[in-house]
Specification:
CATH architecture of the largest domain: 3-Layer(aba) Sandwich
Low-confidence stretches: none
CATH class of the largest domain: Alpha Beta
Helix content: 25-40%
GO cellular component, one term: ribonucleoprotein complex
Shape: globular
Largest sheet: 8 strands, antiparallel
InterPro entries: EFG_II (IPR041095), EFG_V-like (IPR000640), EFTu-like_2 (IPR004161), G_TR_CS (IPR031157), Small_GTP-bd (IPR005225), T_Tr_GTP-bd_dom (IPR000795), Transl_elong_EFG/EF2_IV (IPR005517)
Number of domains: 5
Distance between the termini: 82 Å
Structural class: alpha+beta
Strand order of the largest sheet: 15-14-20-11-12-19-16-17
Protein name: Tr-type G domain-containing protein
Strand content: 15-25%
Organism: Cotesia typhae
CATH superfamily of the largest domain: P-loop containing nucleotide triphosphate hydrolases
Mean pLDDT: 82
Subcellular location: Cytoplasm
Number of strands: 35
Length: about 850
């Protein structure tokens, strides 16, 4: 190891020289493998082992399955040379006197099922290394994580991995390879441009090879370069400025070796500069070594100035190739320069990230301290996930200090996600037992951690479930809750094989809920224990953890089931009236479906219960043709105060209406959380209150009279408005060779899926098929698909939207009717559909 904990602690105070970054990419594009080359540069693992160790895959099942499941953090210290420091021009990006850099790197999983881990990693970092496999190009998950990163205002740099495959397997010509790279850079920039503006707070976000923010190479073989490295090699030879040359080495610039002239057009005797100066030398090395041309290879090595160690001289073929490339273009060096030069320091990043992170007013003490990354301000720290310790059942709280300092033994306010300023709930004042540094597989104790750093805390796990804010400022608001791109739609019921183990199972479920940012553990009214996750793989890992680590007992599990949503398809066919139990109060209401797209807008936070009601009404009026006066009187959203259903007050001059508002809202939250058909959440329903007749005496219109009445009235509205069920739908992206496309169609048709787009990946024989597949039909889909295409198709499914199940759930013999009956039976509700007469009253 090239550094000690004390050195790292010293670097922590030089916050301009810190880089917090995460590595994000599509599944199997080589994140963990690439991370190894940085870890080996820091001297934590041997250089020869880099690319095979996958140091950041700490769990045993991660090594066995060769996939990353949990995101892992590691802190490393590097020093840069003077010539590279010149490139860092922004004064906030480095201390003049310091050439060391502290890099906190988080390696994240690529599987869609674990994208909640990616969200947790992005929240505590400021920059992202986006890895793309140059053979398969930009995939669906690349787009998802990149979009999330930009939404969190995280600056990306791009790395094209697996170049060894392009050269050895596909044997691409250098011009074709350039076109492949060009296409990937374009695709990534299109995604970036779609979700950010150049004049936004981050400045220019786009990646550009000629600026040095794009790297090329192979993580497995441990070599990589940016155009900066090649420019430096040639700058001395040609006696021109490095930066000038970098612009010439990419894009439409051609060089004619005979006339020694540059031109912008392709002509007969000139060649693209990128191919000539960057790719050709690499091709030559590959050619000499892979075709065993010993003398040529030796000459090349002396030309490039590479001296081999004595033990490497006897190697040949691929083994020699790895050593040569790793010595000539070490991957750690190229990555380190990209990270240090192009990714922001906490000082730079917190200036523009504060408004997205902090819920309170943007001028209070905490907000200002976060904005200035002030070590002397109040402590503000966000815990983004829990990491299990070697000690069973205890967790480190993993997060980032945004302002102030966190020290061992200090007293702090620990605020959960439901905390509201001025109230006592979800708030604990406790001492922090220890602060620790996360180092991949190890942890190191450390006295205190100043702002801009990532660390772990011991002794906080009893007060937080998954995430929360830790502060010493008594008026502080919460940091914003993370927005996950997937939702837990697949559920499994679990029970212990031996009934005496039930308490252990309950304890285990509590720990499981802590250890994964997204999994939900619910107890149904019938006493079942439900685990909800993002997909089959996610649930499989969760159940394995539950059995082996958290509960340590054998478990029986049910088949996976899907959660549905209830909705309506037309306006209620009559005005629904319900009377309160004492017959003195009446409510008149109707339900109607929301226009297409509004429910999605509410989910994405475009329309928000916290918005200013005037601007929200204007937005609804312009986009969805709502009556602006009605749109101003949206009483609330539900379920949980922020869901995709609304309650609108359309009454005209009713007495005492505001006194029952709270009770009606409570009834509405109750009804939207448990719908009338099978107690599933409602989605996309708008309820209108038209008239209310109330008793003049306040004691006769209390909550006990109004709340159940509201719920009955809403249920009656639902039943008269042609109720429907909605099921969740996956967007599946399947990569396969052309011959296998037919097999895919067969499998999808059997499972009610449909293909809506297929295209060929340019320059390769691969096809990409995009399809919608109902989640309910997706169990065993992967295995089925592989057996029908001879194992050549690779699916990746991500939750996309809700769609209405065709058929009326009130008619016997339809599919939705069957679903409703099954759900009711599973939840222990009474048989048969609810009767309208029990909710609707006569005048």
């Amino acid at each position: 190891v090239n550094f000690t904990v004390d050195e790292i602690r010293g670097m922590m105070d030089k916050k301009k020289n810190i880089r917090n970054m995460s590595v994000i990419a599509h599944v199997d594009h080589g994140k963990s493998t690439l991370t190894d080359s940085l870890v080996s540069k820091a001297g934590i693992i041997a250089g020869a082992k880099a690319g095979e160790t996958r140091f950041t895959d700490t769990r045993k099942d991660e090594q066995e399955r060769c996939i990353t499941i949990k995101s892992t953090a590691i802190s490393m210290y590097f020093e840069l040379d003077e010539k590279d420091l010149v490139f860092i021009t922004n004064p906030d990006q480095r201390d003049k006197a310091e050439k060391g850099f502290l890099i906190n790197l988080i390696d994240s999983p690529g599987h869609v099922d674990f994208s909640s881990e990616v969200t947790a990693a992005l929240r505590v970092t400021d920059g992202a290394l986006v890895v793309v496999d140059c053979v398969s190009g930009v995939c669906v998950q690349t787009e998802t994580v990149l979009r999330q990163a930009i939404a969190e205002r995280i600056k990306p740099v791009l790395f094209m991995n697996k170049m060894d495959r392009a050269l050895l397997e596909l044997q691409l010509e250098s011009e074709d390879l350039y076109q492949t790279f060009q296409r990937i850079v374009e695709n990534v920039n299109v995604i970036i441009a779609t979700y950010s503006d150049d004049d936004g707070p981050m400045g220019e976000v786009r990646v550009d090879p000629s600026k040095g923010s794009v790297g090329f190479g192979s993580g497995l073989h441990g070599w990589a370069f940016t155009l900066k490295q090649f420019s430096e090699m040639y700058a001395e030879k040609f006696k021109i400025d490095t930066v000038k040359l970098m612009n010439r080495l990419w894009g439409e610039s051609f060089f004619n070796p005979k006339t020694k002239k540059w031109s912008k057009q392709k002509e007969a005797d000139n060649k693209r500069s990128f191919c000539m100066y960057v790719l050709d030398p690499i091709y030559k090395v590959f050619d000499c070594i892979m075709n065993y041309k010993k003398e040529e290879a030796d000459n090349l090595l002396t030309k490039l100035g590479i001296t081999l160690k004595p033990e490497d001289k006897d190697k040949d073929g691929k083994a020699l190739l790895k050593v040569v490339m790793r010595t000539w273009l070490p991957a750690g060096e190229a990555l380190l320069q990209m990270i240090a030069i192009h990714l922001p320091s906490p000082v730079t990043a917190q200036k523009y990230r504060m408004e997205l992170l902090y819920e309170g007013p943007h001028d209070d003490e905490a907000a200002v301290a976060i904005k200035n990354c002030d070590p002397n301000g109040p402590l503000m720290m966000y815990v983004s996930k829990m990491v299990p310790t070697s000690d069973k059942g205890r967790f480190y709280a993993f997060g980032r200090v945004f302002s102030g300092k966190v020290c061992t033994g200090m007293k702090a306010r620990i605020m959960g996600p439901n905390f509201t300023p001025g109230k006592k709930e979800d708030l604990y004042e406790k001492a922090i037992q220890r602060t620790i540094l996360m180092m991949g597989r190890y942890v190191e104790a450390i006295e205190d951690v100043p702002c801009g750093n990532i660390c772990g805390l011991v002794g906080v796990d009893q007060f937080l479930v998954k995430t929360g804010t830790i502060t010493t400022y008594k008026d502080a608001h919460n940091m914003k809750v993370m927005k996950f791109s997937v939702s837990p739609v697949v559920r499994v019921a679990v029970e212990p094989k031996n009934p005496a183990d039930l308490p252990k199972l309950v304890e285990g479920l509590k720990r499981l809920a802590k250890s994964d940012p997204m999994v939900q553990c619910i107890i149904e009214e019938s006493g079942e224990h439900i685990i909800a996750g993002a997909g089959e793989l996610h649930l499989e890992i969760c159940l394995k953890d539950l059995e082996e680590d958290h509960a340590c007992i054998p478990i029986k599990k049910s088949d996976p089931v899907v959660s549905y949503r209830e909705t309506v398809s037309e306006e209620s066919d009559q005005m629904c009236l319900s009377k309160s139990p004492n017959k003195h109060n009446r409510l008149f209401m109707k339900a109607q479906p929301m226009p297409d797209g509004l429910a999605e807008d509410i989910d994405n936070g475009e329309v928000n219960p916290r918005d200013d009601f005037k601007s929200r009404a204007r937005y609804l009026g312009e986009k969805y043709d709502y009556d602006v006066t009605e749109a101003r009187k949206i009483w609330c959203f539900g379920p949980d105060g922020s869901g995709p259903n609304i309650l609108v007050d359309c009454t005209k001059g009713v007495q005492y209406l505001n006194e029952i508002k709270d009770s009606v809202v409570v009834g509405f939250q109750w009804a939207t959380k448990e719908g009338v058909l099978s107690e599933e959440n409602l989605r996309g329903v708008r309820f209108n209150i038209y008239d209310v007749t109330l008793h003049a005496d306040a004691i006769h219109r209390g909550g006990g009279q109004i709340i159940p009445t509201t719920r009955r009235c809403l249920y009656a509205c639902l039943l008269t408005a042609a109720p429907r069920l909605m099921e969740p739908v996956y967007l599946c992206e399947i990569q396969c060779p052309e011959v296998a496309v037919g097999g895919i169609y067969g499998v999808l048709n059997r499972r009610r899926g449909h293909v809506f787009e297929e295209q060929q990946v340019a320059g390769t024989p691969m096809f990409v098929v995009k399809a919608y597949l109902p989640v309910n039909e997706s169990f065993g889909f992967t295995a089925d698909l592989r057996s029908n295409t001879g194992g050549q198709a690779f699916p990746q499914c991500v939750f996309d939207h809700w769609q209405i199940l065709p058929g009326d759930p009130l008619d016997q013999g339809t599919r939705p009717y069957q679903v409703v009956q099954d759900t009711r039976k599973r939840k222990g509700l009474k048989d048969g559909l609810p009767d309208l007469a029990s909710y609707l009253d006569k005048l």
